[in-house]
Amino acid sequence: MTVSITDVARAAGVSASTVSRALRGRPGVSDEVRTQITAVAAELGYTASRSASSLASGRTFTIGVVVPYVGRWFFGTVLDAAEKEFSAAGYDVLLYNLGSPETRKRFFTKLPVRKRVDAVLSLLIPDGEESAALRSLGVPLASTVGGARPGFTVVGIDDRVGAESAVRHLVNLGHRRIGMISGTSGPLHWTTPLERRQAYLDVLAEAGIEHDSALEADGDYTVEGGERAMTELLAAARPPTAVFAQSDEMAMGALRALRRHRLRVPDDVSVIGFDDHELADVVGLTTVAQPVAGQGAEAARLLLRQLDEPDAEPRGHVRMPIRVVLRETTAPPRPRGPQ
Fold first, then answer.
1. If you placed Cys at 276, which of 77, 209, 224, 289 could pair as Cys (CB 3.0 to 4.6 Å)?
2. Intra-chain end-to-end CA distance of the chain, in Å
3. DSSP letter string, 17-71
4. Torsional class of 239: left (φ above 0), alpha (ψ -120 to 50), beta (otherwise)
């Protein structure tokens, strides 16, 4: 005979709702009672029915996740960390990869997540109409990119402060010809490249360094793009002695270009990145570390909290810590005349 949740509750001497919370790892159950219920369920051979739980709670036990580029390291890392939190809490993930304007427009026009998910994690920055469309779902919303916005819990970092610390590090080493590899062709409405560029300009002005547009190049937030951009910077009439790359992947591409041109890092050119990519330590890259996986995990936890405590005040904007990690790719410029 099939064992029901009521059978487990009766054998454990608790209510069916307590059994449900205990087996799904939800709060409101002591460790002692949870252990007891788990043991009883195992002894009776009880397996929770997703359809029965959904009918009882009105939930789908599914979280919708929308991303601009699922194959890119940053978004993939955030997604992986968030999915682990959702899975541990008994939720599935329904993924929408909106990498083109066409698929993005179709998604926000049709909103296929309606009545299919209990919450939405957005790894893209929605415009006003898109934000309104997501709010119309009536479910908890969270994001890991961009600044605060009505109706969303946003977990992220201060991009401007992080970029300022990177460029200021190069200035403090004595560099005056400081280039930047940006990602201006990033996802739609992505503010990160703009924030980091403004920080670059602000620190140059603060140090009394005149901005030279020839020392900026677009690296498309990829290794290949970073290599192309570094090659472009080296072709300038007065090449940079140091480069701030807005992402570690672009910084790695820059290192490859410098090696191909037989230039030594940091003796000839210093390079600093942003992210603390999992390979940054392998290549000795000085970088601004941000908790990429941590942002995904925290956003997931806050969404789950809203589902478990619907009357609790949702967090608005959560900023995660960042820091400069010094490795082997930055050093003072070698004396070689005017810089």
1. 289
2. 82
3. HHHHHHHTT-SSS-HHHHHHHHHHHHHHT----HHHHHHHHS---EEEEEES-TT
4. beta
3-state secondary structure (DSSP) of residue 240? coil
In the DSSP assignment, the letter for residue 214 is: G
Tokens coding 181: 């590899």
Distance (Å, whole) CA 135 – CA 141: 8
Q: How far apart are CA 109 and CA 104, in angstroms?
A: 9
Dihedral sign for Cα atoms in the order 201, 205, 208, 214: positive
301: its two tokens: 């936890």
Yes or no: say if 255 and 271 are a contact pair by the CB < 8 Å rule. Answer: yes
pLDDT at 339: 45
How is residue 8 written in tokens?
């487990």
Question: Angle formed by the axes of helices 292-308 and 73-88, to 10°?
Answer: 40
pLDDT at 189: 63
- What are the 10-residue block averages of pLDDT along the chain, 339 residues in total? 80 84 76 88 76 58 92 93 91 92 93 93 91 94 88 94 98 98 72 92 98 96 96 97 97 98 97 97 98 96 89 84 98 73
Question: Measuring CA to CA, which residue among 300, 266, 298 is closest to residue 285?
Answer: 266
Buried b or exposed e, range 6-21, using 16+ CB within 10 angstroms: ebbbebbebeeebbbb
Tracing tokens 């997931």 back to the chain, one arrives at 300
Half-sphere exposure of 208 (CA within 13 A, CB side): 2
Give the DSSP H/E element, type plus range, for residue 241. none
Side chain identity at residue 207, one-letter code: A
Residue 55, pLDDT score: 47
Q: What is the pLDDT of residue 188?
A: 60
- Per the listing, tokens 């916005």 go with 149
Tell me the two tokens of residue 12: 């454990």
With residue 178 as reference, give the H or E element that holds it. Answer: strand 178-182
Q: List, in sequence order, every residue forming a beta bridge with 318; answer none if it has no partner.
A: 155
DSSP class per residue in 76-95: HHHHHHHHHHHHHTT-EEEE
- Check if the beta carbon of residue 307 is closer than 8 Å to that of residue 106: no
